[in-house]
Amino acid sequence: IFELIKFSYSCADVVAFSTEWQKNIFMGPYGLARLKHVTVIDNALVQGLAKGEVAPAAGEKTTSKLVYAVTRPLVWKNNDVLQKAVNAVRQQYPEIDVLFGPLEKADAQRKMQTAYVVAQVSLGDISPNMILEALSYGKPCIVTEECGILDKIRPYVTVVDPLNIQSIANALTTLASPQGYTEAYARAEQYILKEKRDWKNVAQDIIHT
Question: What pTM was computed for the model?
Answer without folding.
Answer: 0.83
